[in-house]
């Protein structure tokens, strides 16, 4: 049992890391809150004084605000749906004995380690380019007209690109969960005459509940701030402007730090609302 002296020593050793972490989080948050109440335009006069809640009112009443929120939620929902469904399928497939299983697993997981900007450029130029992309050649091979994916089907294209990046993460978590499943349960169910569909529905899927919850929670946290893929592919055009990209436009393109900071506060509020919703609705599986 730990003594009072050892617990005090542990707190003392952890204190520098905790202080550094708090500073890393609190300093940007405090600065964002500070600038959100200021009229601060670096290249157009600098600090023009306090603005009160004017920045918040201007940002939320902007014609781009609610569409950007809707776009963000649609992308998050679409990516979660694809990665969870395909992640379960790939996890079950990779759990089967096969030749070169280790190499196949590495190839499936590899896209997760590619930088978002790089993967977006690869999809944009090598796959979705209407003139020289692989998909254009396939369309022409079958006698169809190539599709301008990033302009005519921008949202499905963005969702596809982001899903390709996050599918390995979901697959890895779900594969780990499947490997922890007691094989004796499946064997007993098979001996009792249960079909493969019933074994999946009543044994495998409930066992994956906690892993699916973890995948949804972690991916949602990161997907709410999606930016690089939009910046590289569509530049926020064709209805793909997310909340993060709107904030970028206000800060860098419009040179209005105060307005962009107010947008950052709204982004924090949105992330917390979604997180609380997921913890209450989906996160109940963690207590099961």
TrEMBL record:
Principal cellular location given in the protein's record: membrane
Keyword line: Cell membrane, Membrane, Transmembrane, Transmembrane helix, Transport
Transmembrane helix recorded as keyword: yes
Ranges of residues in domain ABC transmembrane type-1: 69-278
Residues spanning the membrane: 12-37, 65-94, 106-123, 158-178, 208-238, 258-282
Location relative to the cell: Cell membrane
Membrane topology: Multi-pass membrane protein
Xref: InterPro entries: ABC_transporter_permease, MetI-like, MetI-like_sf
Classification via CDD domains: TM_PBP2 (cd06261)
Entry's Gene Ontology BP terms: transmembrane transport
Record flagged with keyword Transport: yes
GO terms for cellular component: plasma membrane
Family under the similarity heading: Belongs to the binding-protein-dependent transport system permease family.
Stored PANTHER family: ABC TRANSPORTER PERMEASE PROTEIN (PTHR30193:SF45)
Protein name: Sugar ABC transporter permease
Organism: Donghicola mangrovi
């Amino acid at each position: 049992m730990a003594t009072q002296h050892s617990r005090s020593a542990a707190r003392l050793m952890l204190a520098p890391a905790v202080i550094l972490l708090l500073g890393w989080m609190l300093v940007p948050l405090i600065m964002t809150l500070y600038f959100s109440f200021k009229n601060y335009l670096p290249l157009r006069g600098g600090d023009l004084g306090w603005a009160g809640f004017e920045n918040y009112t201007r940002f939320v009443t902007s014609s781009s605000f609610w569409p950007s929120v809707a776009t963000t939620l649609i992308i998050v929902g679409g990516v979660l749906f694809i990665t969870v469904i395909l992640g379960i399928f790939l996890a079950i497939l990779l759990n089967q004995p096969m030749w070169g299983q280790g190499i196949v697993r590495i190839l499936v997981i590899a896209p997760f380690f590619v930088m978002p900007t790089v993967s977006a450029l690869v999809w944009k130029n090598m796959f979705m380019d209407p003139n020289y992309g692989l998909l254009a050649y396939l369309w022409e091979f079958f006698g169809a007209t190539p599709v301008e994916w990033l302009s005519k089907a921008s949202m499905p294209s963005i969702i596809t690109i982001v899903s390709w990046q996050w599918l390995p993460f979901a697959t890895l978590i779900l594969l780990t969960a499947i490997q922890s499943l007691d094989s004796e349960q499946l064997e007993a169910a098979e001996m009792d005459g249960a079909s493969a569909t019933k074994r999946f529905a009543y044994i495998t899927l409930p066992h994956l509940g906690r892993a699916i919850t973890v995948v949804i929670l972690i991916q949602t946290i990161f997907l709410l701030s999606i930016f690089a893929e939009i910046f590289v592919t569509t530049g926020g055009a064709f209805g793909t402007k997310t909340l993060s990209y709107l904030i970028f436009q206000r800060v860098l393109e419009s040179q209005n730090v105060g307005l962009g900071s107010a947008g950052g506060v709204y982004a924090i509020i949105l992330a917390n609302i979604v997180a609380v919703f997921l913890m209450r609705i989906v996160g109940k599986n963690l207590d099961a």
